[in-house]
Amino acid sequence: MTTTEQAGFDLPPRDHNNPPGPVVPETLIAKVQDHTDAAGAWLDLKAITDKDQAEKATDFVTGARKVWADLEAERKAQKKPHDDAGKAVQDLFTPLLAKVKAATDKVLDLQSKWMQAERDREEALRKEREAEAKRVADEAEKRAQEAEARNDISGMIDAQGQAKAAAKEVKAAAAPVKAQSGSSTGAGRTVSLRTYYSCVVDKRGPALSHYRDHPEVLELIERLANAEVRAQPKDAKSAPPGFRLIKEEKAA
User: 227 and 110, same structural domain?
Assistant: First the structure.
């Protein structure tokens, strides 16, 4: 006998805590099917040929728009509790997240300044080590040449060995300085001084010219132009400079 049987009750069904999913009323589904079937019949006509058909088409459009409005109202009604719950969660956590981010950014700013100063100090020391290593390498190379000139093989080999070791020191001293801060407890991730790049517009002409063919730029300026034309009086529509005005007549 299982523990559940011994306790005298059954386990709740799986996913019993999950709320029911969204459901579209069957009446609306039926209306959508009716109108899509009717639209197919209208399209089979190929063209509207008389006033009676035109008026019936008007009734169809009115009915289809009513179905769309009913669907949209149902969608909003079912979505609202989720939107309200999401907003409540967002309102609850947003200020707390903002506080933690601000606190983190302020301390990171202090760390950035310390690491920059530390990097500059280490860089100055590195340059001193590099200069000293080069001096030692140059002297060892000079001694090797002088020993070779006087046929002092032993001195030449010794000096060459010293020159080789000094060359390694020069290479090591040339390595870039890394600015970082470890964790005092060992539990935190090491914080490093990283370089970030960003751009701001300095000269609008060349900047816009560079991106003049970019799809997102074209989409943006077309949206701005359309908004400007819509705001113009009906009897004074004109395209902004660089645009072509398109006039279309559509049933609405």
Answer: no
